[in-house]
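Let us practice reading a record.
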Amino acid sequence: MVLDRYILRLWAGPFLSFLFIVTGVLLLGRALKLLGMFADKGIEWSIMATMLMAIIPYFLVITVPIAFFFALQGMLLKLYQSSEMDALRASGISYVRLLRPIFAAALIVWLLLTMTSLYWMPEGQKSFQGLLIAIQKAKPTPGFDPQRFNHQIEDFTIYVDGENDRGQLQGFMLEDRRYGASVIYVAEWAEIEQNSGNMNFTLYNGTRLEGSASNLRSLSFDRYQVSLNLGELGLLKVPVWGTRVFEMNLSELWNTAFEEKRVDAIAELNRRLLLPTTVLILVIFCLPLSIAPKRSGKAGSYIIGTALLLLVYNSQILLQQQVHSSHFPWWTMWLGQLLLGVLALWAFRRACQDRLPSMLLFVEGVAATVHQRLMLFIGRRSDIHRT
């Protein structure tokens, strides 16, 4: 148990750090894509936070296996560098025994990711995509040019004489036709603010006119507020989708896949079940990719590890697209994952026997050599620029 706690402690810190960094980078990239859209539309920034929170389950299904893999690889590399691995192996501790707590953690993570993929990810996707489409179709927050009648807002006509240095609108007139009869507001000055999904017109020192001819009614006021829900501007009218499979909950997806026999639903269901299994394959691959420092240094392991991640995720995407297009049957998605699993088990077994495949050693050596020469080239370029 002491060894198990020690191994888990070595792994847990880097895992959380990698998870935070990788997920943070993906969220930042998504936020930068949304930034221009939010600025153009004049939509509250709190909605971006809602969208980013909604997309987190989808990102976690991808980033957790990556963080798990690199944290485990870093832990094994550290044990090799400090010669602790040599001491553990000399005392009769096998790789399987050493990694026992990691395998248990991988099973727990796999179960949690499966729950996330089946239940929380589609809900987040539905919320994110709905808000995204709503924002793309939204009208920008209207501007008010001086001495010109503005009709940007449906059922509203606005006229402004000008604007002072404090941003207050001088000589303000507002016609509200939302309820059939026109209501006209005339004020010396007005302020406009947007909050909580509303646009608020605060009018000062004016008159409210309603009706016409003998039914004309007027009301003088010192301060009067007219509020408009942004939904009435066409903002944030979230569409309701009924056929997009990546937003369906599990029961809807199951019925669509097996009752309606829709190929896209079958591909999506298998994708949700398959993605979490990636963490199990990467954990098994980690040992044979981490023995290399004795021969070629850390760079070779990390480069090969990155290449492995690209291979795993791109093969999953490619096979899903082929199934979605009805070119391949659904089981080919699992066949690809199974072949990777068999390869991982074979490499793991060879690593446990201290007989790594010669091809893997060759590739790691080449990767390390390329990395060393690249670093040497960068160093020489830096020296030239200094001189």
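A brief commentary: The longest strand covers residues 183-195.
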